[in-house]
Amino acid sequence: MTLTKPQRLFAGDTIATVSVSHGWAGDENILWKYELGKKRLEEVFGLKVIDAPNSMRGSKYLSENPQARAEDVMWAFADKYVKAIIANIGGNDSIRVIPFVDPSVIKNNPKIFIGSSDALNLHLLCYKNGLSTFYGHNLLPTIAEAQGLHPYSEKWFRKVLFDASPIGDIEPSDDWTYEAQNYTNSNYKRRYYPNPGYKLIQGMGIVRGRLIDGHTFIADDSDCSLALDADDFNGAILFVEDIPEFFSPEQAADFFRRLGQLGWLQRLNGIVIGRINENIGFDKHSAAIRKVIAGEFEMDGLPVLYGLNFGHTSPSCILPYGAMAEINCEALSFAILDSGVE
Fold first, then answer.
1. Residues near 160 by beta carbon (within 8 Å), at least 6 away in sequence
2. What is the DSSP string of 66-79?
3. At a CB cut-off of 8 Å and minimum separation 6, what does 82 contact?
4. Interatomic CA distance for residues 224 and 323, integer angstroms
């Protein structure tokens, strides 16, 4: 599928914040963190920040009113002065928003949308409607880190969204953290640890493919409007983030086994996996993944690279849907060969 690239950002542009899942940004005890993230977007990147009309009405209201969240999404896409949209935070509830979103609003108003975790559902809706979006920074977890915006996260926000040249090599960060954020204590600081870098789980050579994600919707449910199909995996590089509650070695193996049973694993050119959000190694996961991909499906040559900085850890790079990417097994490197914006 050919996706439309949105227009790049410039200092002075307007970015809208939306709460597509949790409404925490508007809760009184978390408002300080929202204001911090807003201030960072203004002072570090020179952006004008506006709240979507319903986004700050608090978690109770937004939980009870998915239609209000959908109205915010459509408002942000339709407003000609809004050049980009950022999700405030993830969660587990954005699927309830999708039925209320008019896809034509996205088709007719392509622009930057960035977010991670549960924002996946909106990414897939945009993907289904021909728009390349950006799996990356949410406002509260990434932009509004209490100890400061991490230089690595800042670098990729600026490079990917403000620069229309090819993105290039995505090197691992020097340090990282798996520690949870405290959303109610502005004095809490997370500890960062040396980053061991990328790990090759299996594979050989150099492969290229268009970036695709959507592991939540790998299913037989033909009624799901967001479900991917076999063609989406043709020649692609699949990126998979860890979901802490659902990414044990056994669950990772089951996920790739399901891909193989559908015949979609066999269509991929490569796989990249985000650094797991726990203070553990990845050896057991690696062995379980190899057992399935190389063992059960005899695909030992398929490159699988682990340890990219995206998902629930910090700091974070940004992955544009549909962009051409490259895995180099010998150099242990990952690159995005396209620009993310025009």
1. 134, 136, 167, 318, 320, 340, 341
2. HHHHHHHHHHHHH-
3. 14, 15, 16, 50, 76, 111
4. 25
Q: Which two tokens stand for residue 121?
A: 């559902």
State the Cα–Cα distance between residues 295 and 153, nearest whole angstrom.
37
CB atoms within 10 A of CB 227: 17
* Angle ∠(288,323,327) on CA atoms, nearest 5: 45
**Residue 265: its H or E element:** none
How far is CA 15 from each of CA 50, 51, 197, rounded to the nearest angstrom? 6, 9, 32
What CA–CA distances, in Å, run from 108 to 2, 57, 86, 118? 16, 28, 19, 24
Q: Residue 222 has what pLDDT? A: 43
Give the integer Cα–Cα distance in Å for 132 and 297.
31
pLDDT at 223: 44
Whole-number pLDDT of residue 129: 97
Spans of the chain below 70 pLDDT: 214-224, 244-245
Phi, psi of 43 (to 5 degrees): -85, -35
Q: Is 151 exposed, middle or buried, given 0-12, 13-18 or 19+ CB atoms closer than 10 A?
A: exposed
Closest CA to 115 of 126, 123, 107: 123
Q: How far is 337 from 342, CA to CA, in rounded Å?
A: 14
49 contacts 42 by C-beta, under 8 angstroms: yes
Q: What pLDDT does 217 receive?
A: 54
Distance CA 53, CA 109 (A): 18
Q: Which domains does the chain have, with CATH numbers?
A: 14-166 (3.40.50.10740), 169-336 (3.50.30.60)
User: How many Cα atoms are found within 13 Å in the side-chain-facing hemisphere of 103?
Assistant: 14
CB-CB contact of 306 with 198 (8 Å): yes
As a whole number of angstroms, the distance between CA 129 and CA 311 comes to 24
